TrEMBL record:
It comes from the Bacteria. It catalyses: ATP + protein L-histidine = ADP + protein N-phospho-L-histidine. The keyword Transmembrane applies. This is histidine kinase.
């Protein structure tokens, strides 16, 4: 029931102050012997309380009208009970500051100053004389106060919007992080587990025919599982630096296991790349190789690295069944997304050899290579 009398969201900051000011105002006007009399005083006080209640709950034009009405009631008390009652105008100065209209705030601030001037004119007391000197700075403070409150409320609103935006960004980052982890699991562990599967199939074939060969295959499976464990640790501790050269070397081993011959053409020294750029390119190469092993049914694969037109370009071509032979899966979107993140481009087209050709193009920028850690 009480929350219908006073807004719940303002209880903590304003309720006690409003009660204290209202009690002091009532005491001040009833303790003064004025020409208003008891009923006149009660009528003006009722106007003040009604205006305060409306201004407390309403905004827009209703707030302005209530504030002007309340200031008028205080001005009447100022004329009959003395200028000191004008100090209670701070109540409506504060409420005016919560208006969303700059025009209403300007009108209210002007009304506060005007009410002071009218009280002193009607009472025929100079505002600037020594006994009344305190009222000029009080008038200025009350006139400026709505503007201060408006700026404060605006800042609070903007902070709320900023907090909401930050919350949305945090959710987006979490979603992106989940997608990154899923993508890295697919790109990294998927390739390693596929190699374990292939090695296991080979070991099964050799176990009766050539136990020594089967033992070698099992040894390679053990080495690969260690690699998988290492990759899991790297994913848990965030993405680590991946050398393009080491990734090509690893890809050559995988392709060899799958029965695919790999040729690497690197006629010149690769350009200086940042750790992020080299890692992202290595992951793109890894994804392309995974697709070749899983889907292409190719016999040969060629990787060509070249620097051309201020860009580092990697061409990966196979002689397999081509794009019509499989769906894109997670691989192609991952390649496109990574290259877009780097500000580069990628193209996936039919290869002249009859398979698929993946082209990765990274514009070169002047930077120092970061230390991989």
């Amino acid at each position: 029931m009480f929350y219908k009398l006073y807004p719940r969201d303002q209880i903590k900051n304003y309720l006690l102050i409003d009660i204290i000011l209202t009690v002091f105002l009532c005491y001040r006007v009833f303790n003064s012997d004025t020409a208003l009399g008891l009923w006149g005083t009660l009528l003006v006080l009722l106007l003040f309380l009604a205006s305060f209640y409306v201004a407390l709950w309403r905004r827009g034009g209703w707030l302005l009208a209530a504030a002007l009405s309340g200031l008028s009631a205080i001005a009447v008390f100022g004329v009959y009970a003395g200028p000191s009652t004008m100090m209670f105008g701070i109540i409506f100065a504060d409420l005016l500051g919560r208006s969303k209209s700059k025009g209403h705030i300007a009108i209210g601030s002007a009304a506060i100053a005007l009410s002071y001037l009218l009280v002193f004119v009607i009472r025929q007391e100079p505002l600037l004389e020594t006994s009344n000197a305190i009222y000029l700075p009080v008038m200025i403070i009350q006139s400026v106060y709505p503007i201060v409150i408006y700026i404060k409320e605006k800042a609070k609103s903007l902070q709320g919007e900023l907090d909401e935006a930050n919350e949305q960004i945090a959710k987006y980052i979490q979603q992106e992080e989940r997608q990154r982890i899923a993508r890295d699991l697919h790109d990294t562990l998927g390739q390693t587990l596929m190699m374990i599967k292939m090695k296991s199939e080979l070991a099964t074939k050799w176990v009766d025919k050539d136990p020594s060969q089967a033992k070698r295959e099992l040894g390679e499976i053990l080495d690969t599982t260690r690699t998988a464990l290492k990759q899991v640790r790297e994913l848990v501790s965030d993405m680590k630096f991946i050398s393009l050269a080491s990734e090509l070397e690893h890809s050559a081993k995988l392709l060899h296991t799958a029965g695919i011959a790999l040729t690497i053409e690197n006629p010149e020294k690769p350009p200086l790349l940042s750790s992020v750029e080299e890692t992202m390119l290595a992951l793109c190469v890894r994804e392309a190789m995974t697709n070749i092993i899983k889907h292409s049914r190719a016999k040969r694969c060629t990787v060509k690295l070249e620097t051309k037109d201020h860009a580092f370009v990697i061409h990966i071509a196979d002689d397999g069944v081509g794009l019509a032979g499989h769906g894109g899966g997670n691989g192609i979107p991952s390649i496109l997304e990574r290259m877009k993140t780097l500000g580069g481009s990628s193209a996936i087209d039919p290869s002249p050899q009859g398979g698929t050709k993946v082209s990765l193009k990274l514009p070169l920028r002047r930077h120092e290579k970061e230390d991989a850690s």
